[in-house]
Amino acid sequence: MSLPRESPAPRGRRPGAPDTKAAILAAARHGFAAAGFARTSVRAIAAEAGVDPALVHHYFGTKDELFLAALELPVDPRKVLLPAIAAGGVDDVAERMVRAFLSVWDDPEIRVRLVAVFRGILDAEGERLLRDGFIPVVLEPVGAALGIDRPELRMPLVASQMVGLIMLRYVIGVEPLASLSGDDVVAIYAPTVQRYLTGDLP
Amino acid sequence: MSLPRESPAPRGRRPGAPDTKAAILAAARHGFAAAGFARTSVRAIAAEAGVDPALVHHYFGTKDELFLAALELPVDPRKVLLPAIAAGGVDDVAERMVRAFLSVWDDPEIRVRLVAVFRGILDAEGERLLRDGFIPVVLEPVGAALGIDRPELRMPLVASQMVGLIMLRYVIGVEPLASLSGDDVVAIYAPTVQRYLTGDLP
Description:
2 copies of one chain form a homodimer. Helices cover 71% and strands 0% of the residues of chain A. The first copy, chain A, is an all-alpha fold.
């Protein structure tokens, strides 16, 4: 798969911690992509990396956190979105969520790395990571934090708009979307996101 | 680039019409992807294919039509969208446009071919085809047919929602979006598209 790697991925137990962490991440990426997030256990990842499962938890915490580490996102989307959600009520949460989104994607250095991750999503393995991993690890906790009804439908609706915005504004660079100010992006997209989060649905 | 080809792309003048057409299409794909739609002339494509420009027009019509032929879309999006637009007023045109979109994408045979084209968009060359070709050849004529103000902003906004829907419903297959009925898709997305087409913008 084409997610960026900081170093070649060694296999088996190594004496140095950096190699061990890299081996765990490589095993995690492989396992999540091949079998899906739900069907890949920390125990299986540890076995493939040749380490004890306790070491996986020591380095990476929970399985959710290991998944996000394996994606090599430059930021944890939960750490960006959850404070924005908690900062006010749900009736105008979309504006805060879109502003939080822009605070990450409009940062040139972060954007370069996010675009690289995003391109990997259209690999067959990357698709599986998004479908089986990103949704339970990121979208479901965010939906739960929002306290909305039918989060299992509403959060993918939000994702369907934000993925298209990412494609046109950041990945492909379609004008005038690529040059819109952050305020204009909020004015255009926050009402859409708000309707998907709290509006009437069929 | 990874757009599907029906046959290997021969170069230079060939005696048989199928080879000549294939040579023209290969030259068109190469030219549009390398230099962009606007900067690639029919004359230059004809020269690369080793044929007379009149033959290009004979086989493919206008440069717009040659571009769509080079994309190898299974349907001409203008022929799907323009009748839907003409069938009523602009105040409820989004519902007709989303239904026209679904009539194509929800057809299993067409969908397989469209997904293949769509995956090619995330190639570097495919991005250029979308940015420099699809917008002037498809989005601008549709915007003109709608008779809306600021089509140069409104049509990319519509595209940003429909591209995300394509990604989640058809390419990645995120549930429950992948299984929603057409009526539910219309109920959810037509208001978004209508607002982008005729609502207040910043």
